[in-house]
Write a structure and sequence with these properties.
The structure is a homodimer. By secondary structure, chain A is an alpha/beta fold. Chain A has three domains: about 70 residues, Arc Repressor Mutant, subunit A; about 140 residues, Aspartate Aminotransferase, domain 1 (Alpha-Beta Complex), CATH 3.90.1150.10; about 240 residues, 3-Layer(aba) Sandwich (Aspartate Aminotransferase, domain 2), CATH 3.40.640. The first copy, chain A, is built from 15 helices and 16 strands. Chain A has an eight-stranded mixed sheet with strand order 4-11-10-9-8-5-6-7, sandwiched between helices. A four-stranded antiparallel sheet of chain A has the order 12-13-16-15. In chain A, helix 1 packs across helix 3, helix 2 crosses helix 3 and helix 6 runs parallel beside helix 12. Chain A is globular. At the A-B interface, helix 5, helix 7, helix 8, helix 11 and helix 12 of A face helix 5, helix 7, helix 8, helix 11 and helix 12 of B. Chains A, B: This is Transcriptional regulator, GntR family with aminotransferase domain. Chains A, B: One of its GO terms (molecular function) is DNA binding.
Chain lengths: ~475, ~475
């Protein structure tokens, strides 16, 4: 991976000051000249750093005056607290909530802040259809034939090629395709653990992961997790002797939006390697980054083949295509065998379409556009939450992905808020869904993978006013 | 279901005499006049019965002489013996064989009698492509969106509608779609049994079922199975107290080609119901019947919701589409939940295509053609086996499906024959793959789902001559 340009380094340093509230909304920034002197860089570099911050809407220029921290910078709302899961499991309550929320997902009359996928408007549907037509011409039997068990070769080759964006050295042979990322996680868990084994996960974590682990009879250990830097490694270290495997959503975790810093990823992989503990890495949001570069996955630091790197295009191209994959390291044969036993092979057509899409550079072009839209959305959302939600609201700072984690007044019961919001045709994902413990009852996940509009702003305002009323 | 026409009943009676060797190849049949008198039917009905037998190539007319049992009637080769599985498990040997055979499946330079799917030439590829184009126009987001967890509604509605062919009273709500029939079996097994439970299956049985059950930690009980009438119910009755669930491929079982008579199906369902034992019914070949009507599945006799009826279009339309389904009876919620946990949903596009294909009557038209081709193929194959294989060869009598079960001299080692045949670019499926016991070492499964040609005939002749040499 290339070195970061100097102006980016500077922009990041200033951004950090804004995020840490060293620089507050409305504060005047040092002049470009000061930055030039302090960092020992050219005028040009200093200017570019400011432009970068402006592009990200963190600062705004005022004519004849200089640069100021913008109110879009989201620095007012503090980040949610690091989770501290207890040991009691309250499985049933979460399941009921999940069922309730899922039932709302097909009703298009509802504003679905609860949904975890991008809206149709964000997807390159016409271009995918072109690739589909192409695939019926290229494929043996127009895609009616069984695909190789390991998966469509064009798709695997292009995922391998694409891994250069994070310095990956994968080959087509390292990869196994699956019916989406959850399907990849399912094969990984089945390959690595048996009933009674313990799996360590982030907390909060995507409920599908929790429910899958429970359904396989695994014991789930929820590890305290920071809303910006992800799983707390010190907490994990303490339980290492008792766990069989670990699972992290390393980049733009759902529901927190957290992204483990590179050094944490390295440390995590090393720590687990020492104990020969496999790591399932769900990296399905990694391509949707708002920064300059794609964050590396833990897989980039895997020397022993212990990291099973999972991904999909369900969050970037086509959830309904059911195209995902895993680079299972040294567990490849087990994963292929499980795929053969449970599903024989993956859908031939949709794999070929995605393979083609990646090969022709359409994926990259699409992602560039999508990232810009999502970053703008995330800023719209945080600003609206700042404007309409109760004073003590905390909100996460995703640097990629689709979701925000909102922590409300500790006395506010979000499952009740869910019911009230649904009466206004607004659906949210209550925090309680993302844990097997009795926690996060005052939290919610909001998806900003929706087309921004005045209507959406109104719905967020309504949500905020419901919350305010409930506190009173 | 409609009553069988009288001429069919008569044709079947005569067919039975041919199959039981009461009438042998070259035997002259009674005259049409005699049949008219004996059965007390019109001349027209008697004539139609003979035409029916002639259509099936069981008899042939000789000018000015009458009708004779044709050499296509396959009556010379006796049917294979009823299986008698022992209790010892020899898992590893079967796995190695399966791996070996699977590796040959992508090599198109090999004549693959080992393959379990129809050749491209038998599939309605152009028409499927039309439905695909239609689906991109009909579907929300051209099929990029997640489908309902339970499955595409159009597909479910049309499978339900189609169930009228066997007197089924299913509704769309009774069905859950899956990524093919094996995927349906996987959810069913996971929903019904846990590690250590015992499952009763036919013997021989499709190896995927055996391997899946073992991988889930189930104990597999192989029940003696007759090559024409399927699982021996008396043998099953004896082990009922020890089994948790039962699985049958009721219609044109793979690899035997057996089809349980209706009264056996009824008896099986009743027997299991008394003990509240669920029955997983894999009915993926039922639509490919050679007779007048589709044989009913066990599901038709299910009063308690204990039968989980599974199917797919992998053997009739498009293996690579990964479209299958299950009507899980009273276990529906468990199955839906497992689908959600392991795969979230099925591929939207291919489900819609198949739903459309069924809705527009294209499926029926296609099946009519395919059945004729496959029946003709089955006769070509049996005739060729009769002509080229060793004297003591036994062969099954499939009345539908794609596969023949061939039993050779007890001293002949078919796994060795496999290796020799592969040197001639011929691949077969050794019988040993279809059991966890040490049996069927002198058996093989041959698929006739291939386009018949002189080339194929030559390959069968080569196979026969290899077998003859090995016996000498």
């Amino acid at each position: 991976m290339k070195e970061e340009a100097l102006y980016i380094v500077i922009a990041k340093a200033i951004e950090q000051q804004i995020r840490n509230n060293v620089l507050k909304i409305g504060d005047k920034l040092p002049s470009i000249r000061t930055v030039k002197r302090e960092y020992g860089v050219s005028m040009n570099t200093a200017t570019r750093a400011f432009f970068e911050l402006e592009r990200k809407a963190l600062i705004e220029s005022r004519p004849q005056s200089g640069f100021y921290v913008s109110r879009h910078s989201r620095s007012r709302l503090p980040v949610p607290t690091t989770s501290n899961p207890s040991v009691l499991s309250h499985q049933e309550q979460a399941e009921n909530l999940i069922d309730k929320v899922y039932r709302s997902l097909n009703d298009t009359s509802i504003t679905r802040f609860s949904i975890g996928v991008p809206a149709n408007e964000l997807l390159p549907i016409a271009k995918l259809n072109k690739s589909l037509l192409q695939a019926t011409r290229t494929l043996d039997g127009s895609g009616t034939a069984y695909e190789e068990i390991q998966g469509n070769f064009k798709l695997r080759r292009n995922i391998a090629r694409w891994s250069f964006t994070w310095g990956g050295m994968l080959t087509a042979d390292d990869l196994v395709t699956t019916a989406g990322a959850m399907n990849a996680l399912s094969y990984c868990m089945m390959a690595l653990a048996k009933k009674g084994d313990t799996i360590a996960v982030e907390s909060p974590v995507y409920f599908g992961i929790l429910q899958l682990a429970k359904s396989l009879g695994l014991e789930v250990l929820e590890i305290p997790t920071h809303p910006i830097t992800g799983m707390e490694l010190d907490a994990l270290r303490k339980v290492l002797p008792s766990i069989k495997l670990c699972l992290v959503v390393s980049n733009f975790n759902n529901p927190l939006g957290s992204c483990m810093p590179e050094e944490n990823k390295k440390a995590l992989v090393n720590m687990l390697s020492e104990h020969e503990i496999p790591l399932i890495e769900d990296d399905l949001y990694g391509d949707v980054y708002f920064g300059e570069n794609r964050p590396k996955p833990c897989k980039a630091f895997d020397k022993k083949g212990l990291v099973l790197w999972c991904g999909s295009v369900s969050k970037t191209l086509a959830p309904g295509y059911r195209v995902g994959w895993v680079a299972p390291g040294k567990f490849k044969e087990q994963v292929i065998r499980l795929k053969l036993l449970h599903a024989v092979s993956s859908t031939t057509l949709t794999q070929e379409v995605i393979g083609d899409f990646l090969e022709n550079g359409r994926y990259e072009a699409h992602l560039r556009k999508m990232r810009r839209t999502l970053q703008a959305n995330s800023l719209h959302f945080t600003r609206a939450i700042h404007d309409y939600f109760p004073e003590e609201t905390r909100v996460s700072r995703p640097q990629g992905g689709f979701v925000l984690w909102v922590e409300l007044n500790p006395n506010l019961n979000v499952p009740l808020l869910y019911d009230q919001a649904m009466r206004q045709k607004i659906s949210i994902a209550p925090g309680r869904m993302f844990t097997l413990q009795n926690q996060f009852n005052n939290c919610m996940r909001l998806s900003y993978g929706l087309q921004w509009s005045d209507e959406l702003e109104k719905k967020l305002a309504m949500l905020g006013s419901i919350a305010k009323k409930m506190i009173r």
